[in-house]
Amino acid sequence: MDGNSAGAKPIDILLVEDNPADARLTREAFVDSKMVNALHHVQNGDEAMAFLRREPPYEDACRPDVVLLDLNMPGTDGRGVLAQIKADDKLKTIPVVILTTSEADEDILKSYELHANCYVTKPVDFDKFVTIVQSIEDFWVSVVRLPPVRKLSS
């Protein structure tokens, strides 16, 4: 067995997170979960879009199955990244999970208006944070069926 629940196939996850501590905690939570998934990390919205569009230096980047997106980042913030993903025919089917510290109703509403697939508030407590990240991973790996990559005619 590959280590994933119910034999689910490993997935590629793109973490867009500017806070090094939160990125490290997320990575540790994935390691602790014992699921065999690839976690790719970029530190801001501009890097995220370059990764998703396979622009330098990410020409060899995979197409992630799920994006974990922080909202509050310097430069292009999470809202801007979400809007660009959902407006792009090649990217819009990638599920985007907002993973942020913001509990503001306006951020939640705006994220769903921009077609976020779900909105999760990061808890401050380490153990709760790990539980949340593992729940996200388990849900997107073992419960839902992810969309296949659609070939677009040029």
Folded structure, characterized:
The protein has five helices and five strands; from the N terminus they run E-H-E-H-E-H-E-H-E-H. A five-stranded parallel β-sheet has the order 2-1-3-4-5, with helices on both faces. It has a single domain (9-141), classed as Rossmann fold. Helices cover 38% and strands 15% of the residues. The protein has 154 residues and is an alpha/beta fold. Mean pLDDT is 88; it is low at 1-6. Strand 4, helix 4 and strand 5 form a beta-alpha-beta unit. It starts with 11 loop residues before the first strand and ends in an 11-residue tail after the last helix.
Strand order of the largest sheet: 2-1-3-4-5
Summing up helix and strand content along with how strands pair, one would put the structural category as alpha/beta
Which percent range fits the helix content? Answer: 25-40%
- What Rg, in angstroms, do the CA atoms define? 15 Å
CATH superfamily: Response regulator
Whole-number total of structural domains: 1
Biggest β-sheet strands, sense, barrel: 5 strands, parallel
Q: CA-to-CA gap between the ends?
A: 39 Å
Question: Which fold does the CATH topology refer to?
Answer: Rossmann fold
Q: In the CATH classification, which architecture applies? A: 3-Layer(aba) Sandwich
Outline the low-pLDDT stretches. Answer: 1-6
CATH secondary-structure class: Alpha Beta
What number is the mean pLDDT? Answer: 88
The tally of strands reads: 5
